[in-house]
Specification:
By secondary structure, the protein is of the alpha+beta class. It contains 3 helices and 7 strands, in the order E-E-H-H-E-E-E-H-E-E. The longest helix has 18 residues.
Length: 157
């Protein structure tokens, strides 16, 4: 069984889901490559998102950021699929379709947001997508923040 690993860009710590201590109550070493696979690719994605945010700023529609980020991926020669449809199954029965914002290098799911407040349901959705596509790493990027690093959440299962 896989464990969920939360990574917070701003504070450079990670915490296993089962731990219930306050976030700043303990210090952690940075995760190893095994605990944090595909680190280089996620850093490239975050770098692209920071460039988009630095240029456009907060307050625009999610679709605007999606187009700008896709263009930044092209400029940096990062392979991606955009608005990729996925099937959701329940006990072997196809129960519907969903679309993910980006699948990067056939490995990392990226969901974009432009919301005032991040909701836990966004994490639940990303976890569902990760399981449905048998992927391990996902990013939620909320562009509606002053500093983009405050709007990035990495999920690893």
């Amino acid at each position: 069984m896989r464990q969920l690993l939360y990574l917070n860009i701003h504070d450079n710590y990670f915490m296993m889901k089962e731990e219930k201590l306050p976030q700043r109550a303990q210090s952690y070493n940075l995760p190893s490559q095994e605990e944090f696979p595909l680190k280089d690719i996620t850093e490239d994605i975050i770098s692209c998102a920071i460039e988009v945010h630095k240029t456009l700023g907060p307050g625009l529609l999610e679709s605007i950021y999606e187009e700008a980020l896709a263009h930044e991926f092209i400029l940096r020669k990062i392979k991606y699929d955009k608005q990729l449809g996925i099937s959701l199954n329940y006990k072997g029965k196809d129960i519907g379709k969903h679309r993910i914002d980006f699948l990067i290098k056939d490995e990392i799911i990226v969901e974009l947001k432009s919301v005032e407040t991040m909701n836990k349901i966004y994490e639940a959705q990303l976890l569902t997508y990760l399981r449905a596509m048998n992927k391990r790493i996902g990013l939620i990027i909320n562009f509606n923040v002053e500093r983009l690093k405050d709007g990035i959440k990495r999920l690893i299962i």
